């Protein structure tokens, strides 16, 4: 089942749930890509396939994103260093946790905002924040800004493209894989850079 079919089948509540669990339950590497999901949701609102207003969609996704990040923060605070000793599973890869930790160490607070736009960094960034001495008020403020920017960027892009070019919905089979590949470019560069260092 592709992203479009998944959204149309499960509807609004499924989208909100997937946005939450991407960062809230550390399964961001196995659920549909967040940016693809939000973009497609905005697109489907514009074509009437998803029967909510764009304002309700964005507000709900922002709240779900904040809730997911907050859950990830408390997971990091509670389990912290134990996660770095956890064995790899089908959904949890320790190397991605280390990648997020390196990114956070390099960019500190900015990583919570910019890391939101990086598919592999996004699920683990709140967790790393929870393992450090970053206070919750600072984390909460940053995650609110990050969620608003992220949801509005992809949701409104999908909505306005769908409004201006209704025919675009027929080409989602091409658009979605390309958007995923573009989103992965910065992550691939970071992985290659780390491999060279090792």
Tell me briefly what this model is.
The chain is mostly helical. It is built from 8 helices and no strands.
Can you describe what's shown?
It is built from eight helices and no strands. The protein is mainly alpha-helical and 198 residues long. It has one domain. Helix 1 runs parallel beside helix 3. It is globular. The mean pLDDT is 78.
Contiguous helical run count: 8
Q: Number of domains in the coordinates?
A: 1
- Distance from N terminus to C terminus (CA atoms, Å) equals 38 Å
Our Rg estimate from Cα atoms comes to 17 Å
Content-based structural category? mainly alpha
Number of strands: 0
Low-confidence runs (pLDDT<50, min 5 residues)? none
**How much of the residues is beta strand, in percent?**
under 5%
Helicity range of the residues?
A: over 70%
Order of helices and strands: HHHHHHHH
What profile does the largest beta sheet have? none
Shape: globular
Mean pLDDT: 78
Topology:
Layout (H helix, E strand, L loop, with lengths): L2 H22 L9 H13 L7 H26 L14 H14 L2 H5 L6 H11 L4 H29 L7 H26 L1
Helix pairs in contact: 1-2, 1-3, 2-3, 2-7, 3-6, 3-7, 4-6
